[in-house]
Amino acid sequence: MHSVETFRDLQGEVTEWRRYLHQYPELGYQVHSTARFVTKKLASFGIDHIETGIAETGIVAVIQGERGDGPTIGLRADMDALPILEASNKPWSSQIPGKMHACGHDGHTAMLLGAAKYLANTRNFKGSVALIFQPAEEDGCGGQRMVQEGIMDRFSISRVFAMHNRPGMEVGKFGICDGPIAAALDEFDIVVKGRGGHAAGPHQTIDPIVIAAQIIVGLQTLVSRNTDPTESLVISVTKLNAGTAYNIIPESAELSGTARTLLSSLRDFAERQIEACAQGIARAFGAEIEFRYRRLEPLMLNHTEETNLAIKAARGLVEAAAVDDKSKPSMGSEDFAYMLEARPGAYIRIGNGPTASVHHPAYDFNDEALPYGIGYWVNLVETALAA
Ligand code: NI
Fold first, then answer.
1. Is the distance from CB of 63 to CB of 118 less than 8 angstroms?
2. What is the SS3 assignment for 330?
3. Residues 171 and 188 in one domain
4. How far is the CA of 132 from the centre of ligand 1 (A)?
5. Using CA atoms, how far apart are residues 149 and 257, in angstroms rounded to an integer?
6. Which range of residues forms the domain containing residue 265?
7. DSSP assigned state of 206
8. Residues within 5 Å of ion ligand 1, judged at the Cβ atom
9. Nearest to 237 by CA among 226, 253, 248, 225
10. How far is Cα 249 from Cα 290, in angstroms, rounded to an integer?
């Protein structure tokens, strides 16, 4: 097990890679030049088994250990950026207006590359490591597609791990928990179909705006009055569209939103009850609804054995107290959840210091965190694949 000092030598070089990636952010599956950069680096480390073009622009590279036969573990980094105009004022700010690495995926990619360089040089483990670089984490499909395209079977991956930076957590600290660590994510649309007319004659109309307003309030009571207060469900109405003029009551109103939960039973409840609540309120006032509900990302569940491995690897790197093993789950979602559905594994958070929050125009990945991330990956591999 190595302390973080082992990885300080790599920090300068990996910082350069990170800042280069930061300047050229790409979105979704269109991470072509990022993938080329990653592939070139991997080849320069002497890694000869590199497969590109998985889920369009994803990469899997395999490093074989020199301590004998053993299983393969997967380490995942995400490569995509966000459609945000950067306002970090850093010298390495985005060169592409309207696109920005505002979630630190540049840092995640650079850390996995740093670990790849170290592991390819030392190979002090049995079995193999599969480095997974995925596109399209932000829109939630890249991880799923890589699983659908068979990477787990094709590369015989038996366990899979991922890491994400967390602003507000000190650099050098880690956070993880067993069980649910990020929420399931669903979206819904409700169209309230009333009867339009003159604003001066409301009695001759069925006003969809008033009904939509009642539905919004009704949905909040599903959380506050129908959900066990010790269990987590968030229902947020995030879009409301209706009307064209001051003196017209419109025919219809549309509202959309998101439901997130840490329990699959609450997911079924949300889907059923959001519709029933909207339907019931609309009918009470003589309107009808159209309802659509989409399950987007699964609940992200850390597995016990792999969570313990992750804790051990992090505690080898930094003092035990710097690794919070009861970190609170987040109500955000993460498409690494699809990989954790396919194989046991664990997702850990790494401190990014007092930076702006992720998805904020002033955010920047903290390069001081790089040796911690690289060291975590190396310790994890040498622990999980100890000879
Ligand atoms: Ni992210």
1. no
2. strand
3. no
4. 15
5. 31
6. 184-297
7. B
8. 103
9. 253
10. 19
